[in-house]
Write a structure and sequence with these properties.
three-stranded antiparallel beta sheet, 10 strands, alpha+beta, 25% strand, Ribosomal Protein L22, Chain A
Length: 225
């Protein structure tokens, strides 16, 4: 995967009292989204994520654009994007949260999506309804002790693809498979957006062990048109 991509992560610390106390806030929709969150950790994670993305983008561009100069917009599916009126179309970023962990991926070569989930949370993972038949068969063939981590790997991969396309949960998750060591496979062209081109999507998966716990992570990337 020869792409100009950076991945950054941080564990949430500290707090801010308002968007005005964070100089990287500019767009009114970002302030509205911040204010819609419950005061406390949720708001802190939101601000931390925005700062992390700005810093990663600036590092990707070797400091040509300062962290405070990035401008964002929000697409019709609710996904934040760089404002094309101010920045190149090939620049893209993805952002994901799990507990205290904030994970960001930025790319100078086309769309990118990232997702992270905790490996330490107990209980069953009920995502059968969003899995394809191939994915269900794959999980059913595993031993029970392997099934939880494999399920999380599938889920983060599908989430990363959905974020990369910008479609989010408007994409039919059961219409495509993200089996290990394979490119996504599309099963039903009718139910899926034409923007989903599995042959052009690469998925990389990795795990993290941090003071905040263990995490399963997926990165989805696609070259720009």
């Amino acid at each position: 995967m020869e792409k100009r991509i950076r991945i950054g992560l941080t564990l949430v610390k500290g707090s801010w009292t308002s968007p005005e106390s964070a100089p990287w806030f500019f767009a009114s929709w970002e302030k509205e989204r911040y204010c819609s969150l419950r005061p406390g950790p949720a708001r802190t994670r939101f601000l931390t994520g925005r700062l992390l993305v700005r810093r990663q983008l600036s590092q990707l561009c070797h400091g040509v654009v300062a962290p405070t100069q990035w401008r964002f917009c929000c697409n019709r599916y609710g996904r934040p994007d760089l404002d094309p009126a101010h920045h190149g179309e090939k620049l893209s970023f993805g952002l994901s949260y799990s507990g205290p962990l904030v994970l960001a991926a930025v790319s100078a070569d086309g769309p990118v999506g990232v997702d992270v989930e905790s490996l330490d949370q107990g209980g069953d993972i009920h995502i059968q309804a969003v899995l394809s038949r191939d994915e269900q068969a794959y999980l059913a063939a595993l031993e029970s002790r392997e099934r939880r981590s494999a399920t999380l790997a599938l889920w983060t991969a599908k989430e990363a693809v959905a974020k990369m396309t910008g479609l989010g949960f408007s994409l039919d998750f059961s219409s495509f498979s993200c089996l290990p060591l394979q490119r996504p496979v599309l099963h039903d062209q009718v139910r899926s957006s034409v923007r989903l081109q599995p042959q052009r999507i690469e998925i990389k998966q990795f795990s993290l062990s941090l003071p905040g716990g263990r995490y399963c992570c997926s990165l989805a990337v696609s070259p720009a048109d």
